[in-house]
């Protein structure tokens, strides 16, 4: 087992990770997120993606994961050095450097612990002692076949949503966003979808070649993301492989879905994956009109009904709610988490869980740009969940604690971020245009922020 009985996350970190190096993370070896539409990869969802060599994968499909950059960063971790792309974890861990940031005598746990603990101790020892030049077989993989998506969430962009592409085509790029250094909102991001639906995509074919030869034998979990995976024909091609090859792979299947569908789509999914271990990951972080505003395209009642349908079906291994902690969700996040806890109480603690993923990009949507009184009120309400610790998993409670600490202690969303004044100005410039394009109304939706918003 990755953790021994009754071992806390803190104890695990000291026993398994710290003895290797001060920066070791199992995800750099055994995990990958790969965007096959653009030919890019990263070790988890925090570092920025980098390009896969299209020539290398022609003869070695493992090269869609084992890139020169990852091998260099593995060597850095073996030496105890911090790869700059993993800044998300370093920022969280550095909160714990000062004595007054200690909680019950333990440091705050960053995601590299959660990205490592899922692997066997012996496999982590092998990774740490393997030459960084050697190709490693993945154990967990998150893969996106394309960017087809019927949503255009405010914190997303055209690189990950075809509906966002339609916005830019129809209305042009967003303007006067000084902090949008990577131009997320100014163009269609054609490099994110290099091949049309009728083209042969060499990255997709490399994946299926690796999968069908030996990846299906070693991979423990395959998670499909997007876009919206249930809109992609490649997702159903993979599900069809599982159906035709029952018993040949012990890989668990996981699918990210925004649940923006009629129930018959979910019925088709559950029927097609009968007998396969299936986890479903969905996204939300606020309630009602707040959620509809942030996640453009969402039908709130439909989302809630689909969550209930999946829980009552009892056909999932697990239902996971990924919360992207952005500036606009803080007002109703506590209410949203309360709803999740009520579902836990009704369907079982293990039936549904949540993760709190702190948004850093676009930096003008970071919760850190909010006025202090809004952040303080969120901290006050989130702190009340400390009384419900027994109803949460350890990782859920720890992520709640670190969010509270983050809102109280951190000043900037990432190194290199522009001043708070510039980010706040971009915040208003973005949402003024967002309202016009999407027929929304910031002031009516978030009356608690209007006085501050109008002064920006």
Any low-confidence stretches, pLDDT <50, length ≥5?
Answer: 99-105
Number of helices: 19
Largest sheet: 9 strands, mixed
- Cα gyration radius (Å): 22 Å
The helicity comes to 40-55%
Please characterize this protein's 3D structure.
This protein is α/β, with parallel strands linked by helices and 456 residues long. The protein has a domain at 147-192 and 257-455. 42% of the residues lie in helices and 10% in strands. The protein contains 19 helices and nine strands. It has helices spanning 9-17, 27-30, 56-59, 68-78, 87-95, 111-114, 121-129, 162-171, 202-218, 233-244, 263-272, 288-294, 300-313, 333-347, 372-383, 394-409, 420-438, 442-445, 450-455; strands at 31-35, 40-42, 50-51, 140-144, 221-225, 252-256, 278-283, 318-325, 352-358. It has a nine-stranded mixed beta sheet with strand order 3-2-1-4-5-6-7-8-9.
How is this fold's topology laid out?
Elements: H1 9-17, H2 27-30, E1 31-35, E2 40-42, E3 50-51, H3 56-59, H4 68-78, H5 87-95, H6 111-114, H7 121-129, E4 140-144, H8 162-171, H9 202-218, E5 221-225, H10 233-244, E6 252-256, H11 263-272, E7 278-283, H12 288-294, H13 300-313, E8 318-325, H14 333-347, E9 352-358, H15 372-383, H16 394-409, H17 420-438, H18 442-445, H19 450-455
Parallel strand pairs: 1-4, 4-5, 5-6, 6-7, 7-8, 8-9
Antiparallel strand pairs: 1-2, 2-3
Based on the model shown, name its key terms:
456 residues, globular, 42% helix
How would you concisely characterize the structure shown here?
Helix content is 42%, strand content 10%.
């Amino acid at each position: 087992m990755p953790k021994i009985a009754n071992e806390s996350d803190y104890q695990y970190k000291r026993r398994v990770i710290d003895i290797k190096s001060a920066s070791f993370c199992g995800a750099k070896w055994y995990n990958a997120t790969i965007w096959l539409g653009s030919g890019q990869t990263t070790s988890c969802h925090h570092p920025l993606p980098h390009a896969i060599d299209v020539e290398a994968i022609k003869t070695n499909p493992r090269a869609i994961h084992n890139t020169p950059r990852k091998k260099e960063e593995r060597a850095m971790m073996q030496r105890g050095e911090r790869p700059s792309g993993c800044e998300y974890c370093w920022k969280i861990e550095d909160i714990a450097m000062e004595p007054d940031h200690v909680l019950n005598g333990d440091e705050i746990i960053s995601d590299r612990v959660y990205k490592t603990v899922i692997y066997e101790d012996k496999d982590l020892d092998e990774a740490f002692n393997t030459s960084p030049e050697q190709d490693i077989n993945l154990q967990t993989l998150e893969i996106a076949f394309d960017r087809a998506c019927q949503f255009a969430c405010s914190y997303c962009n055209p690189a990950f949503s075809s509906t966002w592409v339609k916005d830019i085509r129809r209305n042009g790029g967003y303007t006067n966003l000084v902090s949008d250094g990577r131009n997320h909102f100014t163009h269609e991001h054609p490099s994110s979808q290099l091949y049309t639906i009728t083209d042969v995509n060499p990255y997709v074919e490399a994946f299926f070649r690796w999968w069908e030869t030996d990846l299906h034998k070693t991979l423990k979990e395959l998670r499909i993301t997007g876009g919206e995976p249930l809109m992609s024909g490649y997702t159903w091609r993979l599900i069809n492989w599982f159906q035709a090859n029952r018993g040949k792979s012990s890989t668990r299947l996981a699918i990210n879905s925004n649940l923006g569908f009629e129930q018959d789509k979910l019925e088709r999914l559950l029927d097609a994956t009968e007998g396969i271990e299936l986890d479903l990951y969905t996204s939300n972080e606020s309630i009602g009109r707040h959620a509809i505003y942030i996640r453009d395209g969402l039908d709130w009642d439909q989302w809630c009904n689909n969550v209930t349908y999946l829980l009552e079906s009892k056909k999932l291994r697990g239902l996971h709610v990924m919360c992207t902690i952005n500036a606009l969700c803080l007002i109703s996040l506590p209410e949203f988490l309360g709803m999740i806890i009520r579902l836990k109480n009704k369907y079982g603690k293990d039936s549904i869980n949540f993760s709190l993923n702190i948004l850093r990009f676009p930096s003008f949507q970071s919760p850190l740009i909010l006025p202090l009184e809004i952040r303080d009120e969120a901290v006050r309400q989130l702190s009340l969940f400390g009384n419900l610790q027994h109803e949460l998993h350890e990782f859920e409670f720890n992520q709640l604690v670190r969010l509270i600490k983050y809102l109280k202690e951190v000043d900037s969303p990432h190194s290199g971020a522009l001043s708070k004044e510039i980010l706040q100005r971009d915040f208003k410039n973005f949402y003024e245009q967002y309202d016009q394009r999407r027929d929304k109304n910031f002031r009516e939706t978030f009356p608690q922020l209007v006085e501050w918003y109008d002064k920006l």
